[in-house]
Each structure stands twice: as structure tokens, then as C-alpha cells.
Amino acid sequence: MLWREDRPMRIALLGCGTVGGGVYEFVQERTDMEIAYVLSRRPRPDLNCPVTSDFSRIVSDPTVDTAIEVMGGRQPAYEYMCAALRAGKNVVTANKQLMSERYGELVQLARENHVALRCSAAVGGGIRWLTNLESTLDMEPVLRVSGIMNGTTNYILDTMTTSGLKFEDALRQAQALGYAEVDPTEDLNGADARRKLVISTNVAFGCVVQEPEVTTFGIAGVRACDIGAARKMHRVVKLMASARLLDSGDVACYLEPAMMPQGMHEAAVPENFNLISITGMHIGKQSFYGQGAGRFPTAYNVMQDCLDIRNGLTRFYTDKLRPARVDNSSIMRPYYVRVNGMDRWLQTRIDKMLDCGIITTPVAVSEIHAWARERKLTETGGFLASLR
């Protein structure tokens, strides 16, 4: 939905918490946008705009051209986004959970109703990652995407590496600083970064992969001895997301800890920052660095999406929705593994022994992830990390 040039973009802000509050503050400083409504369950006397708990009031108002969804979660966010799109309203969202799980459905719904759907803030926080990916696709095919996509886990790993803190102490520090949630499970087990990887993969390769197919191993099991083992090999532990287009048209897509050589850019990413990279057919590797989360960095990306729509952008980042299968069987790497009790599978793949673990011979990502799930490696106090 577009609007007359003689009036501001009228925005319905669905949620006014951390990110929504940042969006609200940004809009107050502009003359080309205004908050028509804030959707809130409770009164908000601190806001100088209409506040309602009745979404039907918003969706039926023809003067509202854009809905910004920053509520998070599945419901009622999914219901509201679909209703707004069907009502001919542009939608800007930071909801990585919905954009990962309902990617094809939401993109198709926006297309059918001739409105814009943008989700730059769903991946990379304040990094203009998806828009840079979109620009690259306008020029040439993308072969790979990779990087550090979760600020919470990067802060924990960086603090353990630079300050020598134990995992539990680094996590508490991250929580005290607001980088980690009270329940950090989705960061630690890789679910948060996996959603960002799914969205990035779909945009990069013009496909639709299903989130459960993306094999994931998080950092909940990392210990000081693993950080020390990496240091002895002149490496640094990072949680790395990786995807590449295969000749078959399928994609390799997975998330796992990796021991990165100290000279690589990824190894130097500090605190809660992200670094996400594109590898193009002709341009090679380009990387984008910045705050991965936070009130104003994320709100900044939401506002940039609104400006893009305001300036006439009506499409999604890609117009392709080709179903694709995830196949990680062709990606071979050596792994660092620490496990309580050796088994036959691991015994036949030992390359060298370390103080508290082993280095394997090259093994397929799909194979070692399946082994780790079967062994319940994290639950039994183990850990693994690929050697890049």
C-alpha cells in the first residue's frame, strides 16, 4: 500500500517494548512518519498517540498504511501480520521466529496483496545485512553465507577467551548486561541463530528450507578446557552459521561451534557483535559487522525498512520461493570432540589426542551432528567444534 506524498506514513506499532520503544522514539523525530496507533494490552499514558488493545480497530482503519510488528513470538503476532497483509497494509517485522517458520507463506501473502514485507531487523540487529544481500543478488549469484549471528553466545565465548571466566560466570555477566535473557536456552542451543540462518539462506538462494532440517549444535556444553584447547592450536571458539548452494540445487545449511584461526576476522569479533559474510560469484567474500541486538540498533533497521517502503520499495528481498532440501553430507571437516566415554564410531575417526579431547579425521557435518544427537553430547557434558 502506498500513500499520498502530501501526508506522512501512518504506522500502527504492534508492541512497544524494548525495540518498539526505540521505534517510537525515532518516529517522534521525523515529519514524514507518524504513529497512528500503538497496540498494547495495558494503558500507556507515557505515549502521545492513540493506544488500543483492539487490533480490529487498526486493521480496519484505511488511513494506516504500515504495521510494524515488534511483539515477538508466534501468536498473536502471526494472526496480526496476516490480517494486516490481507488488509493491504505493508508489514515491517523484527520477528525472526515467524519469518523462519512461516517464510514462504508470509512472502506469498504479501505478493498476493501487492504490499511490502520487510524484516531486516530479524537478522543481524542493527546490521543492514538483508538489504546488502538483496543488493548483491541484483548483481550476481550468491554462493555462500556465513558468520556470527548471535550476540549473546559471542559475548559468552569472547569473555571466556579474553577474561578466563567459566561458562556459568560468563553467562551471568551477559545476563547482568542485558545481552542474555533470564532463560537463555534459545541462544545457547542455537535456536535463535538458526532462525536467522534460515531467513538468510532463503533470501540468498531464492529457496525455502524448513527450519527443522537445519542441523544445529550450540554452546551450552563449552567449558574452559575447550577454550584452552583452541588457544593451544592458535584458534578461537565461535558459534558459526554456514550455508552454501550445492550443484544439485539443494543447500548445505548448519550451525555449530567452530575453532577459527586467530588471524581470521571472525576470530576477532568481540563482545555481543555480529559478523555476517556473503560470498558472491565474482565479488568474493564481503563481510558486514555491527551490533547484533539492542534497542536502538534493532529499531534503526526497522526504521530503515520503513524508509525503503516510503521511497517506493514494494518487493521482498527476493521473488523466488523454490523448495530446497538441506544436505550436509558433502561438507567434510576435522572436529575437536570432548566426550565422556569413547565409542566405536569415535575410536575409528581419531586423528590426534589432546589434553581433554581429540581431533578427528575429516568427517561429514551431517554424520557428526547425527552422532552428537544420538550420544546426547551436550546433556552428558560433551562438546564439539569444527576446525575451519
From TrEMBL:
Descriptive protein name: Homoserine dehydrogenase
| Entries under SUPFAM superfamilies matching the protein | Glyceraldehyde-3-phosphate dehydrogenase-like, C-terminal domain, NAD(P)-binding Rossmann-fold domains
The record's comment on protein family reads: Belongs to the homoserine dehydrogenase family.
Q: Name one Pfam family in it.
A: NAD_binding_3
Q: Which residues form the Homoserine dehydrogenase catalytic domain?
A: 131-307
Q: Superkingdom of the source?
A: Bacteria
Q: Which reaction does it catalyse?
A: L-homoserine + NADP(+) = L-aspartate 4-semialdehyde + NADPH + H(+)
The molecular function GO annotations come to: homoserine dehydrogenase activity
Q: What class of enzyme is it?
A: oxidoreductase
NADP among the record's keywords?
Answer: yes
Q: Quote the pathway field.
A: Amino-acid biosynthesis; L-threonine biosynthesis; L-threonine from L-aspartate: step 3/5; Amino-acid biosynthesis; L-methionine biosynthesis via de novo pathway; L-homoserine from L-aspartate: step 3/3
Q: Which organism is it from?
A: Faecousia intestinalis
Q: Which residues form the Aspartate/homoserine dehydrogenase NAD-binding domain?
A: 15-117
Key words of the record: Amino-acid biosynthesis, Methionine biosynthesis, NADP, Oxidoreductase, Threonine biosynthesis
Might you give the EC number(s) for this enzyme? 1.1.1.3
